[in-house]
Design brief:
Elements (H helix, E strand, L loop, with lengths): L1 H24 L7 H4 L7 E6 L2 E10 L2 E5 H8 L4 E3 L4 E5 L4 E5 L4 E4 L2 E4 L5 E4 L2 E5 H5 L5 E5 L4 E5 L5 E6 L3 E4 L8 E5 L4 E7 L3 E6 L4 E5 L3 E7 L21 E6 L9 H6 L7 E9 L6 E3 L3 H9 L3 E7 L1 E2 L2 E2 L7 H18 L3 E5 L8 H18 L2 E7 L10 H7 L2 E5 L17 H12 L7 E6 L1 E8 L2 E8 H10 L4 E4 L4 E7 L5 E6 L2 H13 L4 E5 L7 H11 L1
Parallel strand pairs: 1-12, 20-21, 20-35, 21-23, 23-26, 26-27, 27-28, 28-29, 29-35
Antiparallel strand pairs: 1-2, 2-3, 3-10, 4-5, 5-6, 6-7, 7-8, 9-10, 11-12, 13-16, 13-19, 14-15, 16-17, 17-18, 21-22, 24-25, 30-31, 30-34, 32-33, 33-34
Helix pairs in contact: 7-8, 10-12, 12-13
Length: 557
């Protein structure tokens, strides 16, 4: 018995010794949290966004958190708009604009002037910062701020998360190993977010935003937990003047006031058109001046014949494309006031905004113009439609998604795949080009707000690469050209078009991707399959009469 007791005591002692030695092997060294979070300035606050430590920082000013304008736009809400030209910050709601001057605690809305106990925005150096509490008024997100060192845990993604509970006192470490430095101590029953569970260690985050590694043997109660945001901002409803019926819009290109009556000659051989969009308003300078060739008499006569009128506003002419006016509130407002007041006075039903050749640097100004124009149109009872190029990465600054919130209709100008300056000959609107444009647009705009424009013109390409030229001609004219030059025509299934090529009468090789009733039907089939809000056509007078039968079939589907 004595020997047994001695053996047991020895075994116990050896076990305790092993535990003691093992405990000695665990590093007691602590990491510097300021360095660990990458903080270098006294007023910096580390940002942990949806469980990820970012390499950029918020600012702590007078006990409040401020995020830079770019951080707010990319992380939280891109609708806040800052104009360096005016020194103002604006936020558009369906029926009014919230505005404050950078650095001010005062702000205005439709009801008047209001004052806060803190500056809602401030300039730090050359950078504009927004108070996080101000942003939260119009945005759904939660945040938790912790000091020493300053850090903010920001949550915008409320999908379920994996959690665990600390089963006994342990440490959060920089990496998965007992010799790794300690980030912070973990206490029994402390809740953690599990970011990545491995064999013996898990990458975890404390509720105050410290990320590191903990031993699995010190964790328990692993579970997936549903999350509910504490701050829920309910986006207001943006009233729309959409009728729910398909739109059949025809652009009427008119250059002079005396040419307005030609629209009735063009309409004489058509049927099924619901909206006529005459090109009546032009922005003529960067001060926001607008010229008009609109006619109340033409509107009245079009109404008598059952047509709606959406007057088109353009920013381009032989003088160039106007865009710098977009950066100044007073100049934007000048355009908006002029066009909306005139459209209302002549009895038009809507505004069709066709602002083209906008450079990326004016993208934010452009979409702010569309927001502000929508507020004015909504107040005046005018439908707002906005024309767009076929969407690609290089024209993302037109922000079709934001247009789809504020405008009643977003219109794709589904043509000019190849244009006058193209380096190679090709279709104006091949089937794949149209399909890809619609499918990409639908990732940003609901189908019941999206209209696709089709071309009533074709390009005749002459010469070869390196010596290439083209002219745009209407549907009737191209058929006559093909007949006069005895060009053979074949159906191109891939492009969804008839194709003609051969040596023309002038001895120069010609190629034509023909737009006709057959090609338009193929495009309309794509639009119908995707449930679009309707069709637009550029331009009235270029078409052959049989087009209206094809479009009529689409309208009745």
């Amino acid at each position: 018995m004595v020997l047994i007791v001695i053996a047991l005591v020895a075994a116990a002692g050896f076990g305790l010794f092993r535990l003691f030695m093992e405990d000695l092997r665990y590093s007691k060294k602590r990491t510097d949290l300021t360095q660990y979070l990458g903080i270098t300035a006294q007023d910096d606050a580390a940002i942990i966004l949806n469980h990820e430590l970012l390499t950029e920082y918020a600012k702590l000013q007078n006990g409040r958190l401020y995020f830079s304008a770019s951080q707010v736009s990319t992380m939280l809400n891109k609708r806040f708009y800052y104009s360096a030209a005016d020194g103002t910050v604006r936020y558009c709601l369906p029926d009014q604009i919230i505005e404050t001057v950078a650095g001010s605690s005062e702000w205005t809305d439709a009801s008047g002037v209001h004052t806060e106990e803190y500056p809602m925005t401030m300039m730090i150096g050359d950078t504009l910062y927004y108070a996080l509490d101000f942003v939260q008024r119009y945005t759904s997100f939660d945040y938790r701020f912790t000091e020493e060192p300053s850090r903010v845990v920001l949550t915008t993604d409320f999908t379920p998360e994996d959690t665990a509970v600390v089963s006994g006192k342990t440490a959060l470490r920089v990496s998965g190993g007992i010799r790794s430095d300690i980030v912070t101590d973990l206490t029994k029953d402390q809740a953690l977010v599990v970011l990545d569970q491995m064999e013996t260690w898990s990458r975890v985050m404390t509720m105050d935003g410290l990320i590191g590694y903990a031993e699995n043997r010190k964790l328990k109660d692993f579970a997936r937990v549903e999350r509910t945001p504490q701050n829920v901002y309910t986006e207001p409803e943006y009233p729309s003047l959409r009728t729910g019926e398909k739109v059949n819009l025809a652009w009427f290109n008119v250059e002079y006031l005396d040419s307005n009556s030609l629209v009735f000659d063009y309409l004489a051989n058509t049927h099924g058109i619901t909206v006529v969009a005459p090109t009546w308003y032009r922005i003529t300078d960067e001060e926001g001046s607008v010229t008009s060739i609109a006619s109340a008499d033409i509107v009245s006569r079009l109404h008598e014949n059952g047509y709606k009128v959406w007057a088109t506003l353009m920013n381009f002419s032989e003088a160039g494309s106007m865009q710098t006016f977009l950066a100044t509130a007073s100049r934007r407002q000048r355009v908006i006031d002029t066009v909306v007041a005139d459209a209302k006075a002549i009895g038009a039903d809507g505004i069709n905004a066709d602002l083209e050749l906008i450079e990326d640097q004016y993208g934010r100004d452009y979409i702010e113009f569309i927001r502000e124009l929508s507020i004015a149109c909504r107040a005046a009872g005018l439908v707002l439609s906005v024309d767009n190029y076929v969407p690609y990465d290089f024209n993302n600054h037109y922000d079709m998604g934001e247009q789809g919130v504020f405008a009643d209709y977003v219109v794709i100008m589904g043509y000019d795949e190849h244009f006058g300056g193209s380096q190679e000959a090709g279709s104006v609107a091949s089937l794949s080009y149209v399909r890809n444009g619609i499918e990409r647009a639908l990732t940003m705009v609901p189908a019941d707000r999206l209209i696709n424009g089709v071309p009533f013109y074709t390009r005749v390409w002459k010469g070869t690469d390196g010596n290439l030229s083209s002219i745009a001609i209407g549907m009737s004219e191209v058929q006559q050209y093909i007949r006069n030059n005895n060009l053979p025509v074949i159906w191109n299934e891939t492009d969804g078009q008839n194709y003609a090529e051969g040596v023309a009468n002038d001895g120069v090789y010609a190629r034509i991707w023909v737009e006709d009733a057959q090609s338009i039907r193929m495009k309309l089939n794509v639009m119908q399959a995707n449930g679009l809000a309707g069709v637009a056509s550029w331009r009235l007078g270029y078409e052959t009469p049989d087009i209206w039968d094809v479009i009529g079939e689409y309208m009745n589907e």
